[in-house]
Amino acid sequence: xxxxSPTRTPIVSVSLVLSGLQxxxxxxxxxxxxxxxxxxxxxxxxxxxxxxxxxxxxxxxEVTVPLVLxxxxxxxNVHEYVTNALNASVNDNSLTAAIVSFATQxxxxxxxxxxxxxxxxxxxxxxxxxATAESxxxxxxxxxxxxxxxxxxxxxxxxxxxxxxxxxxxxxxxPTVPVPTVAPTATPAPNVATSPSASPTGTPxxxxxxxxxxxxxxxxxxxxxxxxxxxxxxxxxxxxxxxCSPDHGAASKKSAAAPDRKSVV
Length: 265
Prior knowledge:
- It is a single chain.
- The protein is an alpha+beta fold.
- Among the domains are: 11-140; 216-260, no CATH class.
- Helix content is 41%, strand content 13%.
- The chain has helices at 28-38, 68-72, 78-91, 94-114, 120-125, 207-239, 246-264; strands spanning 11-19, 43-44, 48-53, 56-64, 132-140.
- Strands 1, 2, 3, 4 and 5 form a 5-stranded antiparallel sheet that branches.
- α1 packs across α4.
- The termini are far apart.
- The model is unreliable at 114-125, 192-206 and 249-265 (pLDDT under 50).
């Protein structure tokens, strides 16, 4: 039996035990027609038949039912609806009657098509006219998840992740502040020491020569005057008439004493 693909449509799993036959006499067409007459608007998957005893089999398949039947029959879910329908059909033998009826109709049609009256034709395709529904169980079907690929083993050694450099911020230039310009200060010029200019020296044939000559004349006159005074002084000393001579001093004394005598008299 091929499991159905995953779907949101409600699916339940049905397992029905039939007595009076074995799997080699099981007919899937008769079985589906009988279930369809009991479960309304249902679709069925492929059946899996298993021999339970020498004269009993277990048939399992999936039943899909639309959700509208849940509200129609006032049940909680699809599982409850299918369970109620099949249990009731087994208890009142309506499911057994449906199996026998469809098996008989299918066998008679095949005999009519062949037209030779060979009764063994029905036996060779499966005799389900002797089947009896004994019990049924309904289970919630869990859809098979979609196949996933085999995990790929990690390579040895594991590749190292390439480091991704962190993004660098674009530098934003800082606003430039105008540098205050210093007013130029006047540099004091060094005082130029005025060096005394040398007295112009007379050059030959100039006025300097005349000045030098006049100076010499002055000095000569001075010297002559001094010599003259010395000579005069010497003469006076020698003659005794000078102010420094002794006679001049005695005369001075006499002239000074004379008035005193007159005053006394």
